[in-house]
Amino acid sequence: MTALRILAATLAALIATIALAANWHRAPADPHHPLKRVGRHLLHRRQRRHHRRPRVVRNHRRNPIVTAPSIQEHLHLTEADLIAEQVAEIIRYENRNHPRSLQKELGPSEIGHPCSRKLVLHIIDAPECNPGIDPLPSEIGIAYHARMERHLLATNMRLGRERYIAEQRVTTWYAGENGAGDLVGSADCYDIDEQRVLDWKILGNTSMDAMRLHGPKVSYQRQVQLYGRAYELLGYPVKSVAIVAIPKSGTTHGIKAYPYAYDPTVADEVQARWHQLIVLADVLGVEKNPQMVAAVEATAETCEFCPFFSRKPDGSGYQCPGPGKPMIPAPTGA
Ligand code: SF4
Least C-beta-crowded within 10 Å: which of 8, 99, 184, 226? Predict the structure, then answer.
C-alpha cells in the first residue's frame, strides 16, 4: 500500500514538472505565479552578476571598502578628452623644456621691445605671471622656420650655388669676456644676391590684419635691423632688411613683405638703451625693492603676450596691468 502511495506521488510530481516546462513561455498574468517568481529570480541573479557596482569592494558584508572615483570619473572625462590632453601636455612640456624657452638671456626678438618696464623686469629676472601665453602659436612658428630653412637649402641645390644663408647663428654686439652680455640670435635668411636680410613672421589672422593695417611692430623693425648689423659683423654687405609676414592660415597669396633700408644706427640705439636700463634698474634698486619697477616707463605693445602682464597685479612689483594702470593696488579702506 505504502509503495503504491509513493509511486502515485512520484507520478504526480513528474506530471507537474512537465506541465511547468511546457508552459514556461506562457506564464500566467499572476505576479505571484511560481513561474514568474522563478523568472524574476533568474533575472535578478543575472543583473547582480553583470551590473555590479564597480567601486564597492565587499571583503566583508558589513564593512564594504568604497574606493574614491578616479580623476577621469570625477571630471566626467571621455577617452577623447584624455587623448587631446595627452597631446597638449607633450607640446607644453617639450616647449617649456626646449633650450630656447630655458634661455634667460634676451635675444634680438625681445631686446628691441619699446616697453622699458618689461625690459627692466627681464633684467631682474622677475617671475613670469601671465598664464594666458599658450605655447602652440610659437611652436607652429618655430616649425615653419625649420620648413623655410629646408626650402632655402633646396633652392640653393637647385641653383647649384649658395644664394641664401638660412638660420645662421649671429651676434649683434659683443659685450665682454666669455660671451657674457653678447647679443646672440638666429637670423632667418640672408639673400646674397640682393644683400638683404629677411625675417619671417608666421602670423595668425589677427596679427596679419594688424600688420596690414598698421605695418610691422616697432620690436619687429628693430629686430630685423639687429640681424642686419650681425650680418655686417660677419663680413657680408647689407643694403636692406625685410620683414616677411606669412599667414598661418590662408594661402601663399596672403604673404606680405615690408622692406626697409638697412640702418646701422638702430642697433647702436638699441644697445645704448639696453645699457641705460641696466643702470636705471641699479639706481632704482629694483632687485631689492621690485615695487620701484612702477617708476619705469611703460609702453604698450601686445601686453597680452607679455610674461609680466596681469589684470589684477598682486602689488609685488613683478606684475603689470599695462601702461596707465596702477601696479600697486591702493590699500583697502583708504
Ligand atoms: S604688460 Fe605691457 S606695459 Fe606692462 S611690462 Fe608688459 S609690455 Fe610693458
Answer: 99
Cβ–Cβ under 8 Å, residues 301 and 327: no
101 C-alpha to ligand 1 centroid (Å): 20
pLDDT of 130-189, one tens digit each?
877 889 998 999 999 999 999 999 999 999 999 999 999 999 999 877 777 889 999 999
Architecture of domain 133-274: Alpha-Beta Complex (3.90)
Question: Considering all CA atoms of the chain, what is the largest pairwise distance in Å, rounded to the nearest integer?
Answer: 131
Interval 191-227: pLDDT, tens: 999 999 999 999 999 999 999 999 999 999 999 999 9
- Ligand 1 pocket mutation, candidates 122, 320, 327, 328, criterion most atoms within 8 A of CB: 320
Atom of ligand 1 minimally distant from the CA of 309 = 1
Instruction: Tell me, in angstroms, the distance from the centre of ligand 1 to residue 305's CA.
Output: 9
Contact 269, 229 (CB under 8 A): no
Number of H helices, E strands in the chain: 11, 7
Q: What pLDDT score does 24 carry?
A: 45
